[in-house]
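Hi V.,

You were right to ask for the full record rather than a summary. Here it is.
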Amino acid sequence: MNVQVQLGPRSYDIQIKAGLLDQLPKWLRDYNLAPAKGLLVTDDEVDRHHTYLLQQRLVEAGLSYPRSVVPAGEESKSQEWLFNIYEDALDARLDRKSIMLAVGGGVVGDLGGYAAASFMRGIRYVQIPTTLLSMVDSAVGGKTGINLRRGKNLIGAFHQPSLVLCDLATLKTLPSREFRSGLAEIIKYGIIYDRVLFEYLETGIDAALGLDMITLEHLVSRSCMIKAEVVSQDETESGLRAILNFGHTLGHAIEAVAGYGKYLHGEAIAIGMVYAARLSEKRLGLPGSEVERISTLLQRAKLPVKPRSLPWTELRTAMALDKKTTDGKVKFVLARAIGQVDFGVEVDDALLKDVWESL
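Predicted structure:
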């Protein structure tokens, strides 16, 4: 399956299929993305399963690209590891015509993408996502960045990849908890944009959890199509693209307050989506039956819908640092119905706290 992201001169393809990485050199050459110098950016877990073999494939094709390996986990989206990639890029003698290949999950994609965006003021890169979450979310759309201690993704840039390769076979090596984290973002697409997708998930969630490749190809392809449609209309999140943040305002705050790594991204977003659904019921009249459908589907995907005990004051402070906040007022994406949302919705502090405590 080939999905196109239409952005004029920054347009690119997303290739989705099992077995793509066995032919990585061919894909790079087909898209004129095989310069003499390149760098593979990955983490130590993905390196153990995939990157060493990819490097061998490249060597066999006459492309000698060294590896820059960071520790697995959200803590690697930091200035320290960003500068480590810069040093590895210099050691590999990369220049402005060189390329970076970001091989891994969302952390590697965001970190490697930002390294490519900023090294020598920007070089080309390819996203090679190996987690379900990164295939349907972070690898598509050109958002790159690193975290600060006080919030996620506060330093970054929009830098579109030249190609995205989603090899569904890599999902077989993914821990089940990581896989379920990715399902949260797919469920999000159904809530914000596509009621039919949400209904498909209600009948097909067990097949997805069982790694049925036909089901997964449909879910990944449809999710990428939705994100491509949204990004093509609003590349830099000045309007419509904000709908992709459903559940993320509280979700990011949970990640920050609990400490990065305590919750996986999709787990925090699952809780954030239930919170947003309950806010939607109070603020926009989302039917209670649809709130329950959202919560039930997330639970069937084996995702958390209730938070551990976290102090509201710290969460509210973290939400105030969210990039969608203006003058301290948090702007939410809220649903009128499954498949239909509004963005930029302000909510009174009293209601924010009441709904949190009701969880």
